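Deliverable D5.2: sample structural annotation.
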Amino acid sequence: MTSLFEIFKIGVGPSSSHTMGPMRAACRFVRELGAATERVRRVRVDLYGSLALTGIGHAVDRAVLLGLSGFEPSTVEPGRMAPTVERIREGGKLKLGGGREIDFREDEDLLFHRDQRTPPGAKMDHPNGIRLSAMDSCGNVIEQRTYFSVGGGFIAVDGESAGRKKSAAQVPYPFQSAAELLERAGANGLRIDELMLANEVARARRLEEHGDHVVGEDALKAEVRAGIIKLWHAMQECVQRGLAAEGILPGGLKVRRRARSLAEKLRAREKTAPDPLAALDWLTIFAMAVNEENAAGGRVVTAPTNGAAGVIPSVASYYARMTPEAREEGIVKFLLVAAAIGILYKENASISGAEVGCQGEVGVACSMAAAGLTAALGGTNGQIEHAAEIAMEHNLGMTCDPIGGLVQIPCIERNAMGAVKAVNASRIAMNEEGAHKVSLDQVIRTMYVTGLDMQSRYKETSLGGLALNVIEC
């Protein structure tokens, strides 16, 4: 099973599947070359499908250069990225894995195959393919690997055994569906957040077993909670950076940052007269602040993707700032439960906009946030499942059609709308009693099938929808 700390990852924008995934793939490829690195004189990168079609707008080119240079999205300093890329482009040289220098010319070594969905001969079928080849001085291929960026910064290696590798850590309460999650929690008298915490503690214990000392249960719980709070602090910092920044976002669309000015107007308005809908405005502003940071290539928390990174921080900020019940423990519950819902989508459907459209990104984030908020406010396990179901039910069929291949229009406002929907879904669920007609499992299955049925031009290719019908200016 996927861990909470895989669903939520600290990284950089603008895209988890097009920036973080390719960066991780390139870095892994170089790292696994091992001793063969000394023989490498050239590296060629071939991009396919959505990575090729929206690659420039999603900064795939920059991500690959950084990955080949040895940078990981979780640790790279945003301030080092632009200078590193500029040096490679100006000098035509690249420090492979941060070490020895090789020639690298983008027009020859970084190729966008916009007319091919997947790499030739690949066993896996996914529209985010990247093939890396290392060659010697005679042009002979030393090593070649094909990776797929499957959403949320996750990567898969073509040719590995079908399905995800089993986690080395055996968790006490595994679940493969929402129904099983509810059944296991009910049978053991647990809330969903308690079940998830027990699973994360089991993973932490397994990691500690490789150390020189034994860590007690309470210490492991504290360690997991501290990790969750670190993620929450990173989300809050991203909101604050977004609220402080002004100017034009990069990429050529000349999209103006709006979060700061909107927040200033709202604060001024709140001083003169109360507004019963001000909370919705703050939800909008928090979400836009995060996604403007993401669009600028800043540090964000993938939740579960970068394109949808604003929904969960916005709704969690709404809980923390605008509900009288707010406690830090509520934030821990929020993120534990949101992760449980994210795992269900990740393992039973998809969180890749290139595979299932934006319903797999903002739609999933909305579902996760609705469940997390319900948990933080004291909702039952049944109400949590219901909130997640409602949220996704009303995101079904949402396309991914970014104008100019940039994670800006409609992505920034779409996160704001997703946050508002999440709060509304939670409120509906918490005011309902008894069973509901549609289950979360049915909605997850419907989302996945709908995504597979969706025409490819509406799935992060910028060949249809708004991307085709709105003039870039």
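Annotation notes: The first strand starts at residue 9 and ends at 12. The CA atoms of residues 191 and 380 lie 8 Å apart.
The annotation will be released with the project's public dataset once the embargo ends.
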